[in-house]
Structures are given as C-alpha cells and as structure tokens.
Amino acid sequence: MSFPLDDSQDAPAGQAPETAAPAPPRLSVPPPQAPTYAGERILLDYKDQGYGLYLMAGIGGVGKTQLLDAYQKSRPFLTSIRSKQSDIRVASTLSGSFACYPVRAGNRKAVFVDASGEDFRMMYPHQRISGQLSDTDARFLSLVADSLQGLALVVELRRLWGEPLPGEMGDSGNRHQERILAWILELLRWFRFGGEYNPDSALPFQDQVDAGVQRLRRRQRLDFPIQVIFSKADHLQSVPLPPSASLFGQVAPSRTLFPMGEHPLLLAYHHLPVLYAALKEHARHFRFDFAHSLVLDPDGQSAVDETPCGVNYSLSWLLERSGRLTPGTDAWVRLQRRIDRLCFRGNRWRRLPEPREFDHG
Amino acid sequence: MAEPRQRPPAPLLALFPWVAAFAVGVLAYLVVSRPQEHAHPLAGALTAERTAAEERRWVDTAFPRNFFPSPLVPPPCGGNGRDWEAPLATAHDYISRNNLPDAEATLRTYLMSGPGRQLTQSITAAAQESGAVTSEPSTTDVIGVIHLLATSAYVLILENGNDDLYWLSLKNPIGGVVLLSRRGGLPNAAAGRESWALLSIPSGCMGVRNHLTTYHLYNNLIVGYLAHPEFRDTSTAYLAEEAGRRRSNRPGNPLNTVVSTLRKRGQSPPDAWQRALSNAQLILSEGEWDRPPEALEVASWLGLNLAQLLDSARVEVEGAPRDSLLDMRDVLAVTVARDWSPVAGQEQRTAQVLGRLLLLRAIRRGEPPEIPAEVRQRLNLEQRTTVDAVATAVRRRRDADTLEALVARGAADDSLGVADPERWVTAARRDLAWRFAERMAAAAPRAREAWARRAHGVLAPGDSVPTPLREREGGLNPVHVARRWPWTAGLAASALSLPFFLYLAGLLRHRKALWVSYYRVELLERLRDSA
C-alpha cells in the first residue's frame, strides 16, 4: 500500500512539494504552535472550496480504509483538487495524518476524511498514559467539526466482544470502542457548538468538554447523519452475543450473531448501550448497519470474495442529507415502541429478538 | 458502467406521493362538483331587474309604441247657420270617407284665411282677457270653434302636421274652454273646481252622449307634443305655470313627483315630452282617478296614451314614486283590457299597444301575461312569439330554485324562442347572484357561507360581483372558484398536496432506512442477481 498522493504534496515536516501547488486560501484554524497533520492543508482547501466533510471514525484496524476502498469500487472518487489526479487510491492512514477522498453527492461535492485510527484511540483520555487530554491532542477534530456533514462510526464487534486477538499487545482500545466513539461524539458536539478550551481554568480539558456539553441545550445536537457500521460482518457470524445486564446480574448470551438476519438498530439498542446512549444524547439522525468490504478465508490470508456488501447503501445514506426536516432517530424509536406495544411486539425492546431467516432460495 | 443505486429500490414508496396526490385531486373534484344541497331555498319568484330589463327589450323590439289622437265626436247642434257649421260638416264628411287631405284643406281655409281666423283670434283674446277684444264671441261660436279646432287637431295629427294651424288646433281649444267656464257655460264646472281637465263641452244635441270633453283636447295636446319631439319651449312662464298647477293636484297623482323632479333638474328631457307629461299630470289630477281600479272607466285612446306616457317617465324617478307610476300604468292597461273597445279604425294598433302594456305589467309583477283573445288575435307572429317567451321567462322566474339550476349550467335556454336567449340567462344569473348576496347580507352568520357559495355558483367569469359579496370577501374566494371549475380544484388539490406527500414519502423512506438492514438487502440483491 502507498500513501495517498494528496498527502505527499502536503509536506508536514517542512518538505517542499515537488510541484508548485496553487496558493492555498488563508488558513485561519491552525495556530502557529499547533502540530501540523499530514494532509491538513489539502483538507483546508476542500473546506474552502465548499466540499462537505464526511469523517470516518473508529480505532485502528476496524476497516475504515477498507470500507472507503470498497465504496470506491461502486462510486469512483473525483479528481483531487490539489494533485489533479483522477485515480486516487485508497491507502492506510498513518498516525498524525489523514487522507481526503472527494466524491460527488448528487449535485454537491463531498469529501470523505479518513484519519488514523490510532489518533482516534489516543483522543480517549483513558487510553493515554497520563490519563489527560489536551486541546492540541483534539485539534484534529476541531479542524473538521464546523464543516462536518456526516460521520461514519466504524465498530468491529468481534474485537469489541471477543478475546484479545493473537499478537495483540496491551490495551489497543478494542474493548473500549464504544467509549472512544462516545467520547468522539461528545468532542465533536462541543467543537461544533462553539466549545473553546480555557487554559486559565483549573479544570482539565476533558472536564471542560464535559461541562460545556452539559450546558448545551437539547436541540443543540449534531444535526448531520451518523452511520454506525459494524464492520467485517463476514466474520461476525460466530461471535457470541455479550452478556446482558438483568435483575439477576449478567445473563450469559444465548446465541451468536447472525448479521444477515439481525436487526442492526435493535442489536445496538440491546448490546451497545454506551454507544446507543451517546448517539441518543449527542445526535439527531443515526442508524446502524453491518458491512464487509471483502470476505477473507478462515485463515484470514486471502480474499475469497472481493465484492463488498452493505457499504454502498450505508455510505450513500450519509451523503443524502435527507434528514434535515425529519424527526430524529430517537423520536422514530419512541414512535416505533408505541406502535410495537399496540401490536404486541413490545418484547423486542426488552431483549434482542431472534434473527430473521435468510432464505434466498 | 451503470450508476450504482444510492438506496435500495422502493417502487411503492416512489409511486406513493404521485398516486396519493392524484387521488386527492380526484377526491377534490368529486367533492366540489357534487350537487349542492341548499338548506335555504329561495322559494319564490325572482325579483329581477336585469332579467326584467331583458324581457322588456324583447317587448320593445316586437311591439310598437303608438299614441292615439282623440276620436271625433259629432258636431254640435243648434248652429243656426253660423258660418263654422258648413266647414265643420264638410270636414267630418271628408274624414268619414277617409279623405284627410281635403278635410285638412277645408279646415285650413276656414281657420287660417276665412272668417274663422277672426273668430278664433277674438276667442283667444277674450280668454286671455287681453283687452284686444273687438267683438265678444257668442258661446255658440266658441263651442263651434272648439269643435272646429279639435277636428283640425285630429286631422293634422294623423297627417303629421307641424305648422301654425297644427299648434293653433292643439292649444287654442283649451282657451275656448277657459272662456266658456268663465261664462258659466260648462255644466260640470259649477262645482267650483279649479281643474280644467274633465269638462264636457255642451253640443246642444239631444240624445247624444258622445260629447267633446277637455280630456279630448288635452289628449290631442299630449299626442301633438309627442309627435314632435323636436319641439322647443320658448315660454319662460311655463315652469311657473307648472308650479302653480301643482296646488290643485290630487295627492295621489303619480306624475307629481316626476314633474317636480323635472322642474328641479332643468332642461334634460325634451321639452315636448315635458309638456306632454305636464298635460297628463293635469288629466290625472282629477278626482275620478282615485277610484278603485275595478270602478275606473277610461276610454281606450286616453288610457293607452296615459299608460305609455307613464311608462316613459319611469326612468326619471325611483322607489315609491316609480312604483306609483307603474301601478297607475298597470291599472290603465288592465282597465282598457277589461273594457276592450279598440280605437275606431285602429284596432290592430290598439291591440298591439295594449298587448305591450299587459306584457310590461306581467314582467313587472312576475306573473304570466293575461292577454285577451281579441287582443292576441290581432298580434303578428313576432309579437305572439314574444308573448309566449315572456310567459315562459316569467314562469321560470317564479321558481328561483329551478332557475338557479338552469343558469348554473351556463347553457342558453333555447325554449324561450327568442333570438338571443343567452342574454336572458346571463341577466337571470346576475339577478340570482344579487339576490343570493342580499340574502347573505341579511342572514345569520352561520348561513352566510351557504348563500355566498350559491351566489358564486351562478356567477360567470367577467360578471361583476354583487356589492354585498364583494364587501364580505374583499376579493376572489378560492373555494367558490373551485366550485365553479371543479377540474381546477382537482388540479390545485393535486399540486398542493404533492409536496406534502413527497415529504411524507421522504419521512417513510427515512424511517425505513432506520429499520432496514442494508447489509441484508445487498446480500439478497446479489444473490438475486447471481441467480
């Protein structure tokens, strides 16, 4: 894999680009002392040219880049505005950098921003050795928060619920994905509604964010669509459901996941309570779905099917901007619960129902 | 490479807004085009100015207006060889043989150049008490000259004269009557009445009931004026005379208001017509006109002339004075019809004039015309058709609710049998709209909308909106426009509801996106494609 060409032209360490790039518009966001992310200037160019930003978020290795690569197969990316390169290739993103992938969304232009999963993980204070987060550590989110028009939260359920993967060292954040993403949602909300770090305050940065978000009103929630993608769905079929809480303590899982028959929203409602509560608290429009970008053999060495599934529709839903005048997801859920109660289907809100059959014959 | 779909196909959801908007349009069409049940029937005849005016136009087109000179009466007896006896007898002889030119020549010779000229001048001088009297004329001569002049007036009116003899023959006999009255020679003037209208001039003949009266003289004067509308009044004292005459008028005289209105207004109507009207007012100042209609007696020629004159004056006044005029006109017409006695030698004209007046009465009262058979049989085809058309139209008007259904269809009523029935339908539509609007204004607030809807239901594009309706609504009411053109209501309902249904479909699509698993959908699609 190689770095995206756009990144190579945005020399982070003072290296001059090989070709003379057009003068970027005046930069207003990065303070002089702030660290410069690789790809930051190209991101600012896209912002200045009116591109809507769509952020892919998730810890490292959950498949954000692969999802974008899969999406590119059905919807080729636009020509890069910096390099004029038409065949942008999707590549892994290193820590301290992010890549931009422009697409056409109807009559609008949009750009998917793929940041390093390590950066997302390290934004969660408990993942840091110091346990503290500074405003400069979260500066990456402040760059995109004001222009963000969609957010894809990628969760790998197998790593969230399963045993440590072979070769996994230390706390890679796998089992904290929910909390990390919830914290990112809170940070985005704080930045979007004018949150500013006060260095004179005695409170640390994360406490200032908490306090600031608590002061926000209910209608000051993230108004762009948020798509939660349970990635690598091809590997989820054998993953047992986590124990769920009850009056009698933790109840052991009774079954394993069956992605093609599960109801994604109900799954999140019952088994991703932290993430679901964070979405309900900080966002208006969100949905859940499974996806895989390719199917690997049981050894995970080679692809047996390179056709992605669940990617195109899910990312297209992000680009639709159809939820501006519609009730939020929480309102729909409340309505559906009332309807289900009347239709004697209220039980599915008490425990996850059995998956639907997948009879394609 | 085909553009990939951005969302799972949902054909029913995509079709739903258009089908729903179309259904709403059809529903709106059915609702607004359904027959309206009226909770408040008019239940009665339509008092309709515009419709009546249109019906009157038919009558005015088909029927002529004719004024009749006073018929001749036998010459007076006891002339004892006076020099006026021979020309009077000769003129009567010519007239009886329908030789009007020789009768005129005979009278003109005597009255303008013969001894009759001096006699006439002396009578005029004596009547005016001007002091220029050389020899006082005898009462017999005065009576003889009055007859001569009345005969001359009769001939000249029929011959369409307009010279000195014409006006002398019309005006001077009344001067002779003044002189006779002053001398006490008029039997029915002894009651001390100030009016000169109804006085019988004694003829001296035994057993003759057909006397010359001042009605004859005034009638000729009226007809004479009306025959020459170009007549211009040069008398400055005329209006003063009219003012003085009012003192002797009976209160119920329908022409009092008309004459006083004209006097205040000045010169707008023709002088001849004003003079005719003034003399008619004099006739109608007699107490006999106070009799109830059934006891009234009037000669055909006088009744028809007065009725036509009253009808011509209707445009000068409004309200109660106008009703009084038209009441009197109708009474005269009915009286003449009851005592049918056509003017001698002018039976058809009499019938036509009477037929016209009876039709006008029917139009005004909204009742079917009652035309006597002897009158109807003297009408021509066009006039009989008009009688039938008026009868049909009035019958239609009597049932306003049925009429509303008729005009709401907007079709011309060919059954009327007139050349342009659509004009009548249009007039009826406007009358109905006005009546509904008036009912609306007087109705309780709850019922106003129903009346307004009915008014709009009969109005057509371009029709002026009745004032009460305009004041209530201040402009176009889309509900009523919709009721008028249901298909526009359907289109508008579809167009207006489409955004809502598109939004609703968007909502449903949004909800569906929350509940569906795109992963499952894509898997199924792929399997379907591979199969």
Report on this structure.
- The complex is a heterodimer of chains A (361) and B (531).
- Chain A starts with a helix and ends in a 19-residue tail after the last helix.
- Helix content of chain A is 31%, strand content 14%.
- Chain A has 361 residues and is α/β, with parallel strands linked by helices.
- Chain A is built from twelve helices and ten strands.
- Chain A has a six-stranded mixed β-sheet with strand order 2-3-1-4-5-8, sandwiched between helices. A two-stranded antiparallel ribbon of chain A has the order 6-7. In chain A, strands 9-10 form a two-stranded antiparallel sheet.
- Chain B has 531 residues and is mostly helical.
- Chain B has helices spanning 11-33, 49-62, 85-96, 100-113, 115-128, 139-158, 164-183, 214-227, 238-245, 255-265, 271-283, 300-312, 319-338, 347-365, 373-376, 381-398, 400-408, 421-442, 445-458, 467-473, 478-484, 486-515, 518-530, and strands spanning 200-201, 212-213.
- A two-stranded antiparallel sheet of chain B has the order 1-2.
- In chain B, helix 3 (85-96) packs antiparallel against helix 4 (100-113).
- The longest helix of chain B has 30 residues, at 486-515.
- The radius of gyration of chain B is 37 Å and the shape is rod-shaped.
- Chain B starts with 10 loop residues before the first helix and ends with a helix.
- Classes of the chains: A alpha/beta (361), B mainly alpha (531).
- The interface between A and B is medium-sized, with 36 and 26 residues.
